[in-house]
């Protein structure tokens, strides 16, 4: 389903009646924070520590935004932010301060690392990949597994000295289509096709090369040696953060308009109610912000013209997840590895393990074009297609697996995508303006951060935005 402005406002109206919290209209607020995701919650914590009075308004009827543990499902799978690098200094500090435990995932057995490949219509074991007839890669790449092709390519073609280099003017010539870059390095169409199938992007043709290099540099050059997870699920972290906040957090309050006034800001909700504050911190992904009116009584209160263009055009990656539970251990029946990597609409099927190291669940994870295609089918039809494809590829799954939950980040009106992804020519143009305050509105969120991405990027952006407000209120 494609969300248009009318759908968005309808949802806002429906959810605005869920509002909870003890907030009284007319209370004096220094900073109203739009969004109770990581960046909004951390902004509130930092501001309150400095004596500011804050109010958080949140569209969803839960906190956390793109941190979302599906607590009602077997194994509590994560729909959003999960992996915490050991170089996420801020997240680790917050977790330690709040007594939230981080843990390393249990070491994977060789069996768990194994994945069934389904490529060019054929099931292939990883050990047979290099010599299999369905492996259409050029000789020098034949030994590289499809899921590692991109990492191998970017490592060999990495021009940066540091993971922070991606936005430097000397690399502006690489703000070109990733497809063009892959071709210019002589990769075959088959190698490009498999890279495209694996990459966490909407497609190589619509992605900036600098964006792909930045993601690879984050993984390999930012000093991360291992990853951790929040014990009991990532939502435990945002819950602990929210408990420290003294100001109200109003849930189910979708903002539809932000007005820059001479004295501050005024927010309007779908039901017509308003709140006023001296400043606003807007943490909304641009995919959502582009549907919200920003108005101003002052000459400097609207986003810069290029910033407004970025708000309208910054793409967000589509991610759809289908959570599956086995009713029988079909992998024991066919003797193949439980997890799968395919070049079909199924994309990747990750296996989840219980404490005893046994497979007890699966997630079918589709990015970009495949995610959009599944969304367009509608839930029932998409589930039917997934089970049909599974049965075709792997007959032992017939009557042995069921879809118990689906989640589409682009269908949620308060995210409208999973994470931002720069298109060609956007980085050079947008970076200087992306997080500039517009009058009394300041911007935070992972998309406004130029060092770390992901969860660490979100809280790093909170530090910057709080410094901006402190500088204006000295
Ligand atoms: C599938 C997926 C996997 C990920 N995996 C990882 C990972 O392993 N490691 C990692 O570091 N990061 C990961 N991330 C990224 C990480 O989760 C995000 O970068 C981070 O949570 C973003 O925080 P934020 O505060 O910037 O945005 P958000 O969490 O999106 O916060 C914005 C908030 O604004 C609210 N909102 C939106 N519209 C309105 C409105 N009109 N009115 C009021 N409120 C509104 C939203 O509901 C939301 O709560 C992943 C993300 C996804 C989607």
Task: Summarize the structure in short.
The protein has helices at residues 5-16, 38-49, 89-98, 110-113, 149-156, 178-184, 189-198, 209-221, 235-243, 286-289, 305-313, 330-334, 368-377, 379-393, 426-430, 454-472; strands at residues 31-34, 54-57, 84-85, 102-103, 116-119, 122-125, 227-230, 249-250, 255-260, 265-269, 274-277, 279-282, 293-296, 319-326, 340-342, 348-353, 359-367, 401-408, 441-443. With 474 residues, it is α/β, with parallel strands linked by helices. The longest helix has 19 residues, at 454-472.
Going by CATH, the homologous superfamily of the largest domain would be FAD/NAD(P)-binding domain
Based on secondary structure, the structural category is alpha/beta
The low-confidence parts are 1-20
Largest sheet: 7 strands, mixed
Distance separating the two termini: 47 Å
Shape: globular
| Radius of gyration from CA coordinates | 23 Å
CATH class value of the largest domain: Alpha Beta
How many DSSP helices? 16
